[in-house]
Structures are given as structure tokens and as C-alpha cells.
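Dear support,

I submitted the protein below through the web form. The confirmation email said the job was done, but the results page showed an empty box. After a refresh the structure appeared. I'm attaching both so you can tell me whether what I see now is the final result or a partial one.
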Amino acid sequence: MNDTGFKHVTIRQVLNMSSGLDFDENYVNPFADIANFYYGTNLRKATRELKLVPGTENEFEYLSGNSQILGAVLDKALNGKTITSYFQEKIWTPLGMEYDGSWSIDRKKNGIEKTFCCINARARDFAKLGRLYLNKGNWNGKQIISEKWVIESTLGNPSAGGYRGYRFQWWLPNPGEDFMAQGILGQYIYVHKPSNTIIVRLGEQSGNVDWFSTLRSLALKL
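What the results page shows now:
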């Protein structure tokens, strides 16, 4: 990211989609940034070339570029280890995932993971990610993720950036009660804390369904 304005952007702002990023998320425009991110072969370069919209910092706008910036930060911090191998070590193996998974990359040689999307896994294993957060980062007695981090991630707090319905890459339909991950083609990991319910929905389109309301309604009836 060559724009000097990024020196003043915090990781917390990027996590909360409130970095002020200038990013075209238009899925029908073949020249949009998101098309380059999906189909291009040099995500590191594309990420470095991102810019900011002056005066929009701390304003929430869901933009996939933010999640890829997080990937770039992690990629740099790992100093040669891949994001996939790190995820395998810290999450996939400790949770005892039942099936092999994969993470799409931009190219075969020296590629980087598309951290704005594209973890490929079975429904059972996605559900385990929901269970990990439902149990405040604890997995069968072992603390995999900081409990403090999980609690902060699943509570809406606009004063810390972003807005009440989104926090640290999770959607919060009813902050404090439920949270969920959402894919562009209608994929969901929905967690309802009061009923101890996790629902995973895989698909290729959302259809004419209000999934926020539908998933909560299902959880309340279980």
C-alpha cells in the first residue's frame, strides 16, 4: 500500500471495515477491484496499489479489500510461512477437522491466499469454527483463541470503529445474541448464543430469502 495515508490506518479499523478504503466491490463490472482480486494473479501487487478515500475513515463500508489487507499483514508477519499452513497449525488441526480443506490462492508459485474469501471446506468443519466462537475460543478444554478477543468480536461497539452490526469480520444481526459469517453466494455460519445453536448453510445463491431473519427464527425453534 503505497499511499502514505495508510500509515494512519489501524488494524482495528481494517478489521471493522472502517479504514476509508477506496475499493470497487461491483460484481458485474469486469474492471472492478473485486474482479481483479478474484481472477488476477498478483494479489500482493493489487493490494499494495489500493488507496483511501480522504475523510471516510471510521465510516463502515463492507469492502473485501479490507480482508485482503489483513491477509497481507499476516503474510508479512509470518516471514515465509504460508497463511494456509499457519491456519492448519493454529485452527484446523487443533479442532480436529473431519475433512481436508483448502484455501484458494492467486497463483500456484509463491501465491498468496485470497483472505477476502475462498476457504473451501465441508459444512461440518465450518460448524466447528462456529462452535469455537460459541465456546469463547475454547475447544474441549483448550483455549485456542483468546476469550477476550472472541467476546469483543461478537459484541457491537460503535465507539471502537465500524458499526453495531459488524465487528472483527463477523456480522452481528442482534449484537450480544447472535453472530455470523456470510459468503457472497449465500453461504452462512450462524451462531445463536441463547439457544446454543450453530447453523451452516452452503449454496450457490441466496435466493429470495431474508437469511438474517430465517436463521434466527430456526434457532429459536430448535
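Response: this is the final, complete result; the empty box was a page-load delay. The radius of gyration is 17 Å.
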